[in-house]
Amino acid sequence: MTTSNGPSRTDFTTGEGLRALLLRLHRGGPRAWRTDAEAAALMHYAAEKYAPLARKHGLDAWEAASAAFEVMRTPATRKADDPWAVVTRAVQVTCIAEERGNGLLCSPHQARRVQFSVFHDAERFSDRENPLTDFHPSFHHRDHSDPDSAEEAEPIPESAAASSAVEDTIALFTMLGWPPHTARGAIEYVCERLARAGSRHTAFEALRRDKSARALLDLPAPSWHGLLRTVLGNPEPAYTGTSLGRGVLLRLLIGEPLRVLLRDDDLVLTITVAAPSSPSGGEGRG
């Protein structure tokens, strides 16, 4: 195939120009991307366009360009109303997965899955101010035959109650239409951030702005925000002391059983409407 060395025939910086070039490259066959001068110019443009996004996630500009190349070859991009919007979103998600994969010491493909993405980044013993051996229970040993340590060996009720509350929250969302893997991944992620933050209000504000978590969990904005308000409670001062302000986790921890929550019509409606598979919860993805 003859290499095009003349001036650019299409303005691929626009949506329609990109579509026209992608259609021509698709019709040119597998070798067109290697031999067409406009294809090379397009990839240089993509590397420059997505360089800031790549740097934000600790990647090289050409890693972002590589992600752009992969999505540009798909039929969905050629047929999209705005091809550049599809490419940009795909590059963003790929950069997030690459960053999470580097932090989790796993492949980007695994980092995209909910069961892996909910974990925190790997930490070295030296990363914390206090040695890990001082506070992590995995490094603590008690001689259970010693009467003096028998009391310390008893399980902590608060820990058991918290674990039970988390499982009941997951069960509640699953019963009300949330996919089990999505419910577990999202709620465990929220609980982990809550434990780090130390307060519901701080955790709510941090999670509300956590777009990377929402992208990896593949949740639309209404579903994500509905889950946060339901699990952690509505942070508005007007709801302080009410069921809406307490949230499901706190209500379970203070002794309200699951059957009582299921009789709360407002709560049931909120969770059901926010489910990703429902028409209301499925809008606003982005």
TrEMBL record:
Region Disordered, annotated ranges? 129-162
Q: What is this protein called?
A: Serine/arginine repetitive matrix protein 2
> Which organism does this sequence originate in?
Nesterenkonia alkaliphila
